[in-house]
Design goal:
The protein is of the alpha/beta class. It has three domains: 183 residues, 3-Layer(aba) Sandwich (Rossmann fold); 188 residues, HUPs (Rossmann fold, 3-Layer(aba) Sandwich); 96 residues, 2-Layer Sandwich (GMP Synthetase, Chain A, domain 3), CATH 3.30.300.10. 33% of the residues lie in helices and 24% in strands. The relative contact order is 0.09. Bound molecules: adenosine-5'-triphosphate (ATP), xanthosine-5'-monophosphate, glutamine and magnesium ion. It catalyses: XMP + L-glutamine + ATP + H2O = GMP + L-glutamate + AMP + diphosphate + 2 H(+).
Length: 507
Amino acid sequence: MIAVIDFGSQYTQLIARRFRELGVYSEIYPPNVKYSFLNEKGVKGIVLSGGPNSVYNTELELDNEIFNGDIPILGICFGFQLMAKFLGGEVKKGEKGEFGLTRIKIVKESVLFEGLEKEEKVWMSHHDVVTRLPEDFVVTAISENGFIAGAQSLEKPFFAVQFHPEVSHTEKGQLIIENFAFKICGAEKNWNLGRFVEEKIEEIRKQIGENRVLLAVSGGVDSTTLAVLLQRAVGDKLTAIFVDHGLLRMGEKEEVTEVLKRLGVNLVVVDAEERFLEKLKGVVDPEEKRKIIGHEFVEVFKEEAKKRGPFKFLAQGTLYPDVIESAASHTGMAAKIKTHHNVGGLPEELGFELIEPFRYLFKDEVRRIAEILGLPENIIKRQPFPGPGLAVRILGEVTRDKLELLRKADCILMEEIKKWEKYDEIWQSFAVLLPIKTVGVKGDFRSYEYVIALRVVKSEDGMTANFVEVPYEILGRIARRITNEVSGINRVVYDLTDKPPATIEWE
Ligand SMILES: Nc1ncnc2c1ncn2[C@@H]1O[C@H](COP(=O)(O)OP(=O)(O)OP(=O)(O)O)[C@@H](O)[C@H]1O
Ligand SMILES: O=c1[nH]c(=O)c2[nH+]cn([C@@H]3O[C@H](COP(=O)(O)O)[C@@H](O)[C@H]3O)c2[nH]1
Ligand SMILES: NC(=O)CC[C@H](N)C(=O)O
Ligand SMILES: [Mg+2]
């Protein structure tokens, strides 16, 4: 395993993912992780990630032993600067930063750079520079601006780069990662998702023992895959709970119930519409909505656990992007984007031990696990749907009437877009109800009604996304049908923004 220590970079998850793509297992740890812990785990290499802070004004609880041991280290950007500072070098704010594509010259042969040309294009994002290396270090690469772009120790297997090999814009980035994993760390290609599944089943079986586990299931690919995995691990010690919070799409409850029953999952469906809508009354702030929903979910879980329990464990299909965006990645060094109901939205007193086997995985990895476990194709391909449901797609206050409007519009959008030959390339397609009314004319009468925004995006893992160029013909048909069939809506617009700068959901 390669351990990635996270200093809050936007790309930390990409680093881990690059190793996994090579068949080398990788996990992410907080800055205060103990060297002895990593050593006991048999870690073969350590990567120090980038990060938004500067080493000269950040106090860190990094375990010094990491630099006294013999496990190879690769410092990236902030990680390089940190290594330099810890080992006696010097870091200062540069006269200028280097952002985006930059050329570097390789000035010394290095195992890390094997297979690279003398000049390479790399991707950078920094303002601080290492101005003096630790004593036993030599420069291996220099940027076109004359800054140190690569360095390594002559005594220890410590390597560093100022650029980001993990992003695809660094042309030979994957080769650098490969050199580090195999030539420097001697890692083995022995990890794949099939093995991950086997190991998780074993691990969970041990962890749960004779206890029982309550699984929050939504019918989405993550939690449904987890349901099947847990079933294999602990059989009838598993009870799945599906909460109808009144924020679901048209026909969703019936569909989900049927699918889960067909998979043989022991399922409890809780009708909680009344209480969720009551709690959401008058609430307009998106973050407040998310927190209320997260809390109410847990209240429902607790009550059901009391009736049917005892349950020591609560399982959730949490993925890595939920964790990063909620800024809950153990370091607290990443910026908060939004509170995912199942992570940042949880109350402090949970009352359960959490089981989240997919916490470090991305959606495409979970989809492959679903394939391995033999889930039906319609689940594997199901579009993500956020736990807070339509509440984050009705901007402003959530009311029954608005829910009704949005459900109808969303259903029309889905019907039409499913007919499109490129439907399979879509990550998510949905309707959003805007909190404004505009003037229209319907049947010679003036109308003053709500606006629906359509959002259709493609994405690899939900971390970035692009709007899809849906043909005008289809968009036009959707707009006509919505304005004709949903009374209360007289205007439809299409969202042309990517993520970043927008997010996929509007709240
Ligand atoms: N209606 C619900 N009832 C019970 N648990 C839910 C519900 N909605 C969401 N959850 C829990 O929250 C987790 C996160 O939701 P999220 O929507 O990200 O994942 P998912 O529904 O499993 O998959 P997908 O992202 O494909 O929709 C789920 O895995 C599940 O554990
Ligand atoms: O379970 C969830 N609970 C949430 O609170 C939540 N918020 C966003 N999403 C989904 O996550 C992906 C990224 O969404 P954003 O670009 O809107 O942040 C998209 O796929 C969103 O649908 C959520 N899923
Ligand atoms: N991407 C990074 O790790 C940046 C490190 C540091 N904040 C700098 O500006 O140099
Ligand atoms: Mg979902």
